[in-house]
TrEMBL record:
Pfam families: ATP-synt_A
Record key words, sorted: ATP synthesis, CF(0), Hydrogen ion transport, Ion transport, Membrane, Mitochondrion, Mitochondrion inner membrane, Transmembrane, Transmembrane helix, Transport
Gene name of this polypeptide: ATPase6
Keyword Magnesium among UniProt keywords: no
Protein name in the entry: ATP synthase subunit a
Tagged with keyword Nucleotide-binding: no
Catalysed conversion reaction: H(+)(in) = H(+)(out)
Subunit structure: Component of the ATP synthase complex composed at least of ATP5F1A/subunit alpha, ATP5F1B/subunit beta, ATP5MC1/subunit c (homooctomer), MT-ATP6/subunit a, MT-ATP8/subunit 8, ATP5ME/subunit e, ATP5MF/subunit f, ATP5MG/subunit g, ATP5MK/subunit k, ATP5MJ/subunit j, ATP5F1C/subunit gamma, ATP5F1D/subunit delta, ATP5F1E/subunit epsilon, ATP5PF/subunit F6, ATP5PB/subunit b, ATP5PD/subunit d, ATP5PO/subunit OSCP.
Any single GO CC term annotated in Swiss-Prot or TrEMBL for this entry: proton-transporting ATP synthase complex
Gene Ontology molecular functions: proton-transporting ATP synthase activity, rotational mechanism
Membrane topology (UniProt): Multi-pass membrane protein
Transmembrane spans: 12-31, 69-89, 101-118, 138-159, 171-199, 205-223
Signal peptide: none
């Protein structure tokens, strides 16, 4: 039974071909194309308003040098939100439940922020490894601890996104299985369980959006320290 629960996180294959590429490419087809007209339809208007709000929120703590990342960070957030939301549909696959994919997003972007900091302001970037006013005997220990925490950041980004989505999908499947099992024996309990399942699904919709936002927000905070 537990094997079947975790089968939903296995990358699907068709004729030996992994379909994760299609799952990653499909969201780009669903986005409406921006129009050059002054008056747009409601969908494009709402899309533009949300993108502007997200961009202002992300770029607020950054200086002008960090604003060059606006397109990349906002595009990544919209992409992650779309993948997470589509993964909540029945009989679909969520690519962001794969740690390898999330690490593929986290490691290059984190490394880019570190490289930018070392290139533009190496003294300040290295100064983050040693807080000001540190006692001399603690200097070697603190440098080691700060270096480890620096290299753990991309791992924390990828694991956080993977763990939250995986846990939510497992809970939904477990409670849905309980509803089907209880329905012929205890209909009242099954209805109450189905209500919990509905509320949990709403919570997972919120988690799908919040986790994508947190992923990009943490990247912008890492960028803020290096720009």
């Amino acid at each position: 039974m537990m094997v079947s629960f975790f089968d939903q996180f296995a990358s699907p294959l068709y004729l030996g071909i992994p379909l994760i590429a299609i799952a990653i490419t499909l969201p780009w087809v669903l986005y409406p194309t921006p129009s050059s007209r002054w008056i747009n339809n409601r969908l494009i208007t709402v899309q533009g308003w949300l993108i502007n709000r997200f961009t202002n929120q992300l770029m607020l703590p950054l200086n002008m040098g960090g604003h060059k990342w606006a397109l990349l960070l906002v595009s990544l957030m919209i992409f992650l939100i779309t993948i997470n939301m589509l993964g909540l549909l029945p009989y679909t696959f969520t690519p962001t439940t794969q740690l390898s994919l999330n690490m593929g997003f986290a490691v290059p972007l984190w490394l880019a922020t570190v490289i930018i900091g070392m290139r533009n302001q190496p003294t300040v970037a290295l100064g983050h490894l040693l807080p000001e006013g540190t006692p001399i005997p603690l200097i070697p220990v603190l440098i080691i601890i700060e270096t480890i925490s620096l290299f753990i950041r991309p791992l924390a980004l990828g694991v956080r996104l993977t763990a939250n989505l995986t846990a939510g999908h497992l809970l939904i499947q477990l409670i849905a299985t309980a509803v089907f099992v209880l329905l012929p024996m205890m209909p009242t309990v099954a209805i109450l369980t189905a209500t919990v399942l509905f509320l949990l699904t709403l919570l997972e919709v919120a988690v799908a959006m919040i986790q994508a936002y947190v992923f990009v927000l943490l990247l912008s905070l890492y960028l803020q320290k290096n720009v």
